[in-house]
Write a structure and sequence with these properties.
Length: 188
Amino acid sequence: MLHELTMNNTISITPTERKDAEILHELAIATFQESHGHSASEVDIDAYINAKFTEENIAQELSDASNVFHFIYCNGELAGYSKLIYNTPYENLTPSNSTKLERLYVLEKFHDRKLGKQLMDFSLNLARRNEQSGVWLYVWTENHRAVRFYENYGFQQIAETYFQISVRHANPNWILSLEFECAPNGQV
């Protein structure tokens, strides 16, 4: 568990467990609606949420050992979460030991506390400790705040794709990648 004092806030990052499915289910819906709710019609957003973020689907994701979830708390209040998948290259554009950062979400009411940065730093360090060569992710091209956030870390665009929200709607996304620099002994 990570504990820090930042801006008079106690921050903790903890791994999730299968028993956290209901909490993660609610958080996943809330954060997706905040970040993507305006990217498509309400009908299309609801269709995506009802297909992807059911409590059953979340429980299955938590049961899959290849998925690594963490919650971030601020003063004991759940503020966001991340999901990593190790050794998941993006097609032939990233090495086989690349981590996919599938989700990194912080509730809007915590955006001014830099929790996204703390969760990202934590996630990147986890990937390094697990001998990953780098991290890649999808980002909606119209989410300018998120694009800037990742660019500040050194992520670079390697491809473009569409993120399917519903059968009727897809959002343009960039695939961004960050390769870790190797230490002199070849370790990342």
